[in-house]
Amino acid sequence: MILMNDFRAEPAELRSAMLGAVSRVFESGWFVLGREVEAFEKAWAAECGVAFGVGVGNGMDAIEIALRSLGIGPGDEVITTAMTAFATVLAIIRTGATPVLADIDQQTALMSIESARRCITPQTRAIVLVHLYGQIRKMDAWTELCTARGILLVEDCAQAHLASINGKMAGSFGAVGAFSFYPTKNLGAAGDAGMLVSNGETVVRRAATLRNYGQSVRYHHPELGVNSRLDEIQAAILGERLKWLSQFTVRRRKIADAYFKGIDNPLIECPAAPESSQAHVYHLFVVNCAQRDKLQAHLQKHQVQTHIHYPIPIHRQEPCLKMARDPLGLANSECHAATCLSIPCHPQMSDVDVDTVIAALNLFSGD
User: Fold this and answer.
1) Please, how many CA atoms are within 13 Å of residue 59, restricted to the half-sphere of its CB?
2) Residues contacting residue 256 through CB under 8 Å, at least 6 positions apart
3) Residue 223: pLDDT above 90?
4) Which residues have a Cβ under 8 Å from the Cβ of 81 and sit 6 or more positions away?
5) pTM to 2 decimals?
6) For residue 333, what are the β-bridge partners?
7) Is 142 domain-assigned?
8) Element (H, E) at 347
9) What's the alpha-carbon Rg for the chain, to the nearest Å?
């Protein structure tokens, strides 16, 4: 079976380095908010081209703490996409703010800027822009919109580690960038982990307070925070995995290029090509097919694992049925949810694996 992710196939050198990092933490005797976290915060902020990083427990907390650090809460509206992981919207809800759902662009599955404009009201304080599947697009247009309307831009970079446009990295365009290091991410820990990055010193200082119960200095709590701290073991592991990220990203792009060139089936639609070669890191390679369920069963028969990201758009989730949305509706999100299918695109795939996936896709007849 060609898997969506295959951690057991990772290089022995990387596994040895991670085990060594874990051993280093145990030898240090320090497990929370120590040198490993500080070192990884600096390293990842530097990769993102920003001044500061604050390690937190997971990607959802990174979004919540980012919004709270920007002063967003009850009475505020935050626009985001209906096509995203539930955590994006849940983070907004947890701040006390009101999510407003915009539709997606049909070709890219990213939030439509035209739809977002229709969602803006006098209560709009922020846009959480999700770099879905690992791609960033139209960032000048997004930053111009937010600047013109006095809206804060927060980037959900959970799937976009190292994506860039003209040398500017995902996470550096808005007021704050929020990253997840869930194990399956392009840069993944051996458990939950996250970080927010920013050039705003005041925002970062507040984020560091909020992640630690709202504690500014030991036993002084000027506000109510949360318990969301990146631990030393995960930070140490991420520091080792970071050394391999560029190499792994190159491999993902080569696999995606092979898919673009090799998939030739009128029943299967490949994603839109990225704005530039560096603008997409292919956390996921997602095709669309009107007979998605049949295609998934066909690929399973040919020993190719697939997943669906995401089968239920946010506004169809039970807690969100009455959630505010684009007044023209969310038709593109619904269509994408009904037809999208993620195929394997990870750096441990061999050329033979890639060719096998392409051949299986091209064999699909819909019968």
Assistant:
1) 28
2) 280, 282, 285, 345
3) yes
4) 88, 101, 102, 103, 104, 110, 111, 130, 132, 314, 333
5) 0.98
6) none
7) yes
8) none
9) 20
Task: Give dist(CA 240, CA 16) in Å, integer.
Answer: 10
Q: Based on the structure, what is the number of domains in the chain? A: 2
Catalytic residues: 185
Question: How many CB atoms neighbour CB 346 within 10 A?
Answer: 24
Task: Judge whether 304 and 90 are in contact, CB under 8 Å.
Answer: no
Count of CB atoms within 10 A of residue 177's CB? Answer: 30
Please calculate the CA angle 71-105-114 and round it to the nearest 5 degrees. 60
pLDDT tens column, 78-101: 999 999 999 999 999 999 999 999
Distance CA 57, CA 227 (A): 8
Q: Which of 201, 221, 240 is the last residue of a domain?
A: 240
Q: Which residue has the tokens 């959900």?
A: 156
| Residues 222 and 251 grouped into a single domain | no
* 276 within some domain: yes
CA dist 144 and 162 (Å) reads 22
What's the CATH code of the domain at 347?
3.90.1150.10
Spatial distance between the Cα atoms of 29 and 21, rounded to a whole number of angstroms:
13
Asked if residue 271 is part of any domain, the answer here is yes
Query: pLDDT tens digit string along 57-76?
Result: 999 999 999 999 999 999 99
Q: Which domain holds residue 301?
A: 244-363
